[in-house]
Amino acid sequence: MTTTAPATATTSARTTRRNDLMLAAFRVVFSFLFACHGLQGFGFLGGVDGQGTAVPVGSFPGWWGSLIELVGSVLVAVGIATRTAAVLCSGAMAFAYFVVHQPTGLLPLHNMGELAAVYCWAFLLIAVVGPGSYTLGRAFRR
Fold it and tell me: Nearest 5°: phi and psi at 53?
C-alpha cells in the first residue's frame, strides 16, 4: 500500500516556494519600472520632457505624484509597509487615469492611459495579495 501524502506535501512546498519567488520577482521588477517614472519627475532619465526637466518642487499633482511613485515603489520593492505603499501607488495611478487621461478619451487606448491603468490594478493586486515571503521587512523581523 502506497501513500501520496509525503509527495503531495513536497509538491505543495515547491509550489509555494515557486509562487513566493515569482511574487518577489514581480514586485521588484514592477516597482523598478514604476520608480523610473518617479525619477523622471525629478529630472532624471530624461525628465518629463526628454530634456531633463523636472516638475516644479511642491507642485500638485506632478511633484507629489513623482514622490509617491518613487518612495512607494522603493517600499513595495523591498517589502516594507508593502500593502500601504501599494494602496497609495494604486490610488495615485487611479487619480492620474481619471484626472489626466480619461477626460481626453473614453478608453485607455484612446487617452494614453494604459500604463496608469495597468499600474493601478497591479499595485492593487500587490496590496491584496501582500508582499510574499521574500522581503526585507521579514528579514528584519528574524
Answer: -80, 135
